[in-house]
Structure formats: structure tokens, C-alpha cells
Write a structure and sequence with these properties.
There is one protein chain. The protein is mainly beta and 294 residues long. It folds into two domains: 121 residues, Roll (2,3-Dihydroxybiphenyl 1,2-Dioxygenase, domain 1); 140 residues, 2,3-Dihydroxybiphenyl 1,2-Dioxygenase, domain 1 (Roll), CATH 3.10.180. Helix content is 13%, strand content 38%. It has five helices and 15 strands. The strands form two sheets. Strands 6-7-8-5-9-12-11-10 form an eight-stranded mixed sheet.
Length: 294
């Protein structure tokens, strides 16, 4: 991705939308993003995100007000709708915001459906968040950090709506999924039980019900959250609307199974596509010119 600011452990989220213009406009008009480029997805980039059939699709890169790209939207009108709250796979994008209460109040007539009002999280009263559903059916956790949250290393917010800093996964097996990402961790994953109200609401469970969760601190101010949701079902097969792939910074060696696109959104990167235990797609990426983390 073309980032003008300090690289992040979570490089970008790939979002599949039925209507590229409508999805892009929603993020620009309501979440303070801007389109930095429009392009046709190349074959290598399509393979890198786990969906080679998307080669030739219309796409756009979106950046926050600091000019830092973090969202890639790809148009696929025939993709299958998916509800991330009751199926396994990528559950949500947790996005850093400056003022969650003001932001959510402004979304009443927007393409973003507010599922849960802003509230302090069960894990810490320094984290305040609201959960919304976006124009492609994706779930966003709009999250304001009111101070340090030890032992986590979390980013500082520098824009009204900044960037994805915690990809959230729904899985039938917390330990297997944690193993998929452990290579990226700065330390061992933390395991605990916590309330996930938006999931409980969708599944008809008591709002106070707790679920087994793991968090993995990445090598930088970002986490991966892994939610063991026993009542969820496998996602529909094939290409679905919503969050399709997360691209993560890692040290990888070029060789079989890797690719270095000469054009497109991942030009200059070496990528290794992977599929996780919950069926989710993710890609590990590093600079093509050297072995250090980008």
C-alpha cells in the first residue's frame, strides 16, 4: 500500500462491495476518508488476497485525513452476502476514532447502521466503542481510546477516523486460530472470557454472556482479537461481501508460495497468502527489497 506515514503492523483491510462507488462514497462522506487512487486489480494482487477470480475487478484505495491508506475496496456485484456476526471468519474491523459519541451521533442518516450505542468495554473503561454495519455488510467497531490500556500497546489517534488497528476474528477454535497468527506476535497471546454484546444481540443470547477470547499483541501498536463463537456457523463458500482479507506486516522469505506484484496496490511488497483455521483469508507482507518488516 502507498502509505505516506509510519508503516503499521496491520497494513490494510480488503473489503468486497457490490457497488464500488457507493461503498467508497460512504466512507468518504461519513467516515472522513478519501479515495487516493482507482485501478483495476492485477492478477498477482488478486492471488495475494486469496481470490484470483477478482483479477480485472474495479478497485479503490482509501486513506484517512493524514493521507495514510488502510482500506482497499474491490467491486464484485455477484459476491454472496454474509453476516459476520453469526458466521465464522473476519468478524469486524476495529477502527481508531477521535470521538466515538460525536461520530455515532452523526451517522443517523448514513449508510452505516448503528447496532450498539457507544459504551465503555467490558475489558477496560478506557476503551469506548460502538458497533456499526457498513455498506457491504461489514462490521466496524468504532473505538475511542481514552488513555493507555496496559499491557496492550495501542496507537495514538491522529485523525477523526484513523485506521484499522485490531482485526477481529470469529472462530470455532480459539487455540487453532491463535496458532495461525502466533508467528506475528510480540509475546504470547492473552486468553480470557469477555462479553461481546453485539454478537450476543445478533445470536439471541443473553447480552451479558461471555465468550472465550484471545488477543495477540503484534510487533507494534496493534492487536489481533480472536473470538471463540460456538453458536456461529461456517461462512458461505466462495467470495462474500464484506471483509475479505487482512494484510499484515511480517518477516517472510521470498520463494514458493510468495509473490511480488510489479503493479497494483501491493507493488514493492512480497506477499504470502494464507487461509486461517476459521476459513478466513490473510496475507503476510514485507518489503520486496529487504527482509525487514515494512
Amino acid at each position: 500500500m502507498n502509505n505516506s506515514c509510519q508503516p503499521r503492523p496491520v497494513i490494510c483491510c480488503v473489503l468486497i462491495a457490490a457497488d464500488l462507488e457507493a461503498a467508497s462514497s460512504a466512507y468518504c462522506d461519513w467516515l472522513f476518508q478519501s479515495v487516493t487512487r482507482r485501478f483495476t486489480l492485477d492478477e498477482d494482487s488478486a492471488r495475494a488476497i486469496g481470490y484470483p477470480g477478482l483479477a480485472g475487478a474495479a478497485a479503490a484505495g482509501l486513506a484517512n485525513r493524514r493521507g495514510s491508506e488502510w482500506l482497499l475496496i474491490i467491486e464484485a456485484p455477484d459476491a454472496t452476502p454474509r453476516n459476520p456476526l453469526n458466521t465464522h471468519g473476519w468478524l469486524a474491523q476495529e477502527i481508531l476514532v477521535e470521538d466515538v459519541d460525536s461520530l455515532v451521533a452523526s451517522l443517523s442518516d448514513s449508510p452505516f447502521d448503528v447496532l450498539r450505542p457507544p459504551a465503555d468495554l467490558d475489558v477496560s473503561d478506557r476503551i469506548r466503542a460502538s458497533q456499526v454495519r457498513g455498506p457491504a455488510g461489514e462490521i466496524l467497531y468504532l473505538t475511542e481510546l481514552k488513555g493507555p490500556v496496559p499491557p496492550f500497546d495501542l496507537p495514538r489517534c491522529d485523525a477523526p477516523v484513523d485506521h484499522l488497528f485490531i482485526p477481529v476474528l470469529s472462530t470455532p477454535d480459539r487455540e487453532a486460530s491463535l496458532g495461525d497468527y502466533q508467528v506475528l506476535g510480540a509475546s504470547e497471546g492473552m486468553r480470557f472470557d469477555t462479553r461481546i454484546s453485539v454478537v450476543n444481540q445478533e445470536l439471541g443470547l443473553p447480552l451479558e454472556q461471555r465468550h472465550p477470547v484471545a488477543t495477540l499483541q503484534l510487533k507494534g501498536p496493534a492487536l489481533i482479537e480472536i473470538d471463540h463463537i460456538s453458536a456461529a456457523t461456517p461462512a458461505p463458500s466462495g467470495l462474500c461481501l464484506g471483509t475479505a482479507c487482512i494484510v499484515l506486516s511480517a518477516n517472510i522469505d521470498s520463494g514458493p508460495g510468495t509473490m511480488s506484484p510489479s503493479q497494483g496496490p501491493f507493488q514493492g511488497l512480497t506477499l504470502q497468502p494464507r487461509t486461517g483455521s476459521a476459513g478466513e483469508h490473510f496475507a503476510l507482507a514485507c518489503s520486496s527489497q529487504n527482509s525487514h518488516t515494512i
